[in-house]
Each structure stands twice: as C-alpha cells, then as structure tokens.
Amino acid sequence: MSEQTDFTPMFGIGNPNDAYAQYFTGQSYLNALTGPEAGVALANVTFEPGCRNNWHIHHADKGGGQILICVDGHGWYQEWGKDPQELTPGTVVVIPAGVKHWHGAARDSWFSHIAFEAPGENCSNEWLEPVTDDEYPA
C-alpha cells in the first residue's frame, strides 16, 4: 500500500489493480475471490481514501450488470443524473446493465466492496470519463 494504515479489509487487500489503473482516480487493489471454474466472478476491490473509478456502463444483450456488497469503510455510488448514495458495510447495490455509474471511497476513508458481475449474454464494460472533483461528494 502507498501509505501506512491499519486498514485491513475483511477479504484481504490483494494486489495493486494495475490492469485497470487507467480507469481509476487514485489507487485501488484487487483480490479475486473466485476463479473461472466458479462460473461467476467475485472480487474484493479496495479503494484508498479519495479513490474512485471512472464513469462506466456494464452492457449486456440479456441479463448482466453488477452487484456491489459493501464490506469495509465508507464509500459512494452514483448513477448518472442522480444524487450520490452513501455506502457502508452491509449496503448492497444492484446495478442493471446499461446504467452509467461510478463507485469508490469517501475522501477520508478506505473502502472495500465485493464486486459480482451478473451473468448475461454478450456482456462487456464501457469505461468512460473520470469523475471530476466537482462531481465527487464533499
């Protein structure tokens, strides 16, 4: 981790999320919880304070989308055109395919969620513009 902290996510911090770093403001970490043999992708994503992902859309011809299960810290989720939603341990967010959104840590808190990619047909992710400081909750 890039700074000293006593934050220990319930499902482990994993490794720096370098493969997707271009789609994040700040540092995130990825800990895969299932492999391909499970048939569904479950991953613990940890965000340093202030880290968030870009606006993005999960596409699918049928089914698809994403489910977030918040497990540690304090974060935010926002759908395009709506107010941000506070995320705390125990919060579950169901994101249907086709919804433009972002999620990440609060400015002053580490944050972790389990990300579940819902099964569907012809699923893909479209990464969009970064969340600006003006859009990011104070």
TrEMBL record:
Residues 45-106 form the Cupin type-2 domain. InterPro entries: Cupin_2 (IPR013096), HNL-like_cupin (IPR047263), RmlC-like_jellyroll (IPR014710), RmlC_Cupin_sf (IPR011051). Pfam families: Cupin_2 (PF07883). This is Cupin. It comes from [Collinsella] massiliensis. The lineage of its organism: Bacteria, Bacillati, Actinomycetota, Coriobacteriia, Coriobacteriales.
